[in-house]
Amino acid sequence: MKYFYLAxxxxxxxxxxxxxxxxxxxxxxxxxxxxxxxxxxxxxxSFDPLPNxxxxxxxxxxxxxxxxxxxxxxxxxxxxxxxxxxGTETTDETKDYTVTVDVAGLQPNTWYYYEFSNSGxxxxxxxxxxxxVGDTDSLxxxxxxxxxxxxGYYNAYKHIAERNDIDxxxxxxxxxxxxxxxxxxxxxxxxxxxxxxxxxxYRTRYSQYRLDPDLRYAHQQYxxxxxxxxxxxxxxxxxxxxxxxxxGAEGTWVDRIVAAQKASDEWNPKRLLDENNLGKIYRTVxxxxxxxxxxxxxxxxxxxxxxxxxxxxxxxIGDEQMDWLTNQMDTTTVLWNIIGQQVMMTPLIVFGITVNxxxxxxxxxxxxxxxxxxxxxxxxxxxxxxxxxxSSWANDLPLSNYDNSDLQNVIGSVGVEFVATSIxxxxxxxxxxxxxxxxxxxxxxVDLAKRGYVLLDVNKTRTQGDWxxxxxxxxxxxxxxxxxxxxxxxxETFLQVAQQGPSVYLGELQPQAPLLPNNPxxxxxxxxxxALVGVYPNPFVDRIVLQFNLFRSEEVLIEMYDNTGKTVYxxxxxxxxxxxNYFEMRDLNLxxxxxxxxxxxxxxxxxxxxxKTK
Length: 614
Hints:
Radius of gyration: 24 Å
CATH superfamily of the largest domain: Alkaline phosphatase D (PhoD)
Number of strands: 36
Number of helices: 8
Shape: globular
Number of domains: 3
């Protein structure tokens, strides 16, 4: 988590916020399990659209271990009268019971609906859209980042889902946060309570975030195009470590990064250039002849330690990714070159001091190389999209001869940058922002306090960014405003204020996907009592974490048996209140082998087979 703190006398700096058996409950104000969604509690999602294919996703919650078959179908209507593709996918605990299907044979620029099923139970119906080919007049995207669950409600996600006028969500990182419980909005404490380090930790955290109803709603309605930032791993990460990782005490960085990237691939799948390298996530998503979206990894892949070496040798994206990006831009025939990436590209210098060496300012050689190659190749219409810093910025990307004395004819800029503020993560309210703009004339607008997202509207004549802000993240009743609107004309390299206000959607609205499955469980009719959401890790060493939901307050008994039927663990939790619960079994001094876990709730018993390793 990052916050900007400005010292009015000297400089501005970016600081990092550091941070027996137990049961936690969400008190029904958090992302509880809704029995109507069983067993697909985490909803549905889609990712990385192409003209003829798209990735669709769900997660099935099972009571018993082992592989399970999940059916899926894909149609042009919510009644599934016109099914264009269908199939069955097998998943198991090695995939955390997530399901990802690459649905092929689709038509370009087309809205589709999809759902999953198992044993007569259906998921939510998802809605998604393929990319266009050829002549494309206009497109709209929501650009978002930095969604700390503890820090507040996901009102911005809800507004994105409800607006129903975008083609996709571009998410620029910090989808989850790795910190342990550390305060924030009451009832939204992190699960697990500890800082996440192991694979089961990361899986549990993704599970918690994806149970949030507003995030689930946004995923249900649009395809997402994601990259990670540092908090999907650890704060201020780079290729060989992180500020928030202590080698040894927190295991090895290699093990932690493998766990973090596997969980990310399970819960937020991407089209990898190399399917054998989960750490290589940079890629291009093309939208007809209108734009290419180059999704970079400025966080992990080939990134050197912040402040290491010299300015000339320190690399942010490295030779391989730099060559790939510049070759993509050099050879494309699209109109707009949109770069989706994590850290701010434009310089930020106050009182002669580089404020934040975690962003491109800390890696000036890479930025100089990128700008020089863009100029040498004559690449035009460069728009950078950025997240990470929990604040809003509208920037030109200045060269050494930058001059904006004539705001209608700025010179010396290679392109523009829209920085999206956070969904919830904290900013720096009350800071005098004129210090920043006064000493950085290429920074045209900055707001360090408000939460929300950017609406990016792209057409053949201009690209416009509209900042949408929610009035609060501490209450689920909120309003929305869009007070800042900036655009760049095609063929120009500088921003101007959109005097007419936010861009207006001129397309035809597509029916949204229904908010409930087509056969939701009725609590009164079937009277579900409990659901075992996850058991981590499996195999285990001396610790097991259970996520379970009670649909009403009940007595809960946890027991574990060995292969002879002998009880080796028993814990009566007493009467546990309804909602999503988190229970940790610690110091399990057991022999290597297989064990039978039983959770008894009223007259229902939920079971799972676990394996103890050395």
